[in-house]
Amino acid sequence: MKVLVIGTEQNIEEFKLKFNTGHECRFETDYDFEEDLSKFDCVFDFFIGDSPEQFEIFSAYEGLNLFVNAPKISLTELAYYQEEINCNLYGFNGLPTFLNREILEVSVLNDKAKSGLEALCKKLDTDFELVEDRVGMVTPRIIFMIINEAFYTLQEGTASKEAIDTGMKLGTNYPFGPFEWCEKIGINNVYEVLEAIYEDTKEERYKICPMLKKEYLSRITH
Fold it and tell me: Residue 5's beta-bridge partner residues?
């Protein structure tokens, strides 16, 4: 498989850990490249959720298998502003700590893309789980809701960050506590995905804790 990967150095390292089966890969850390995309079997783009305007680079390529990091934006929304989409558009959960797992979380834009997904994932040597095309996908919705609740618990003074992290790991056997996980994922990703989910659902469980919002704002302004 000839694969183009566009992402941060961290994204690229996690991709290598996940897909370490000897594919012919080209790695780019920004969109400043000149390449005939038709020579690639598939593209993994970690940036489009934050830069949806870049989708037009790929959309016209007939048959190109394009995986975009989709927790922050649905494929339907991404495609809405494009007059013509010839690529096979897939969403994947590429947030930090979520990619290098046995099962790849995938959404599809339409039945055309869905029909080729099983064969494509077989070539990539990964199991996959097809999820609904909505912001947050599945796993981030669950984990980020837990992180948000942990911030509410901290805000109320019920327990410290350390106690909450320890209790979560012992009680659920999760690899990290909610505050540890938040740091590894990046508070910007947690906040922005929760914001997108709340805008999509208007459900109270996704309403961002004021303490989480304050910490997010303090990080991006310093």
Answer: 27, 44
